[in-house]
Amino acid sequence: MIQLLAQGCILIAAGWLVCVSLIALVVPETARRGLASMGSTAAIQFGEHIPRAVVGIAFVVRAAESKAPLLFTIGGWFLLVTSIAIMLAPRHWHAQYARWWAERIPRWGFRMAALAALPAAAAIAYAAL
After folding, report:
1. Domain region containing 98
2. What's the domain count of the chain?
């Protein structure tokens, strides 16, 4: 049962990554505004990092059953630990960092990241099955 739940969380996360990638590819200015808003409110901060931490846990739980156990273990712990660290750090640090990057990434940069993230999402979904 826990494996099925972890797999479901990972598949939902891969679907979310596809959606975000399509936004970045088609309307990069919307992606820029989204990035710039990260950490701007407590709701956005925790609304971003609690699900991210849950996905990290799902990766760790699913690792042994996945097609890429080492990558799932390392990636899962990375997601979990960095999400906790960001939630514990002063929120304005995260907000400033997000705005800093949003001002510097060119429009084509959002599109290039999207082109890399789409196959990554497919690979994550495949490896979780």
Report:
1. 2-128
2. 1
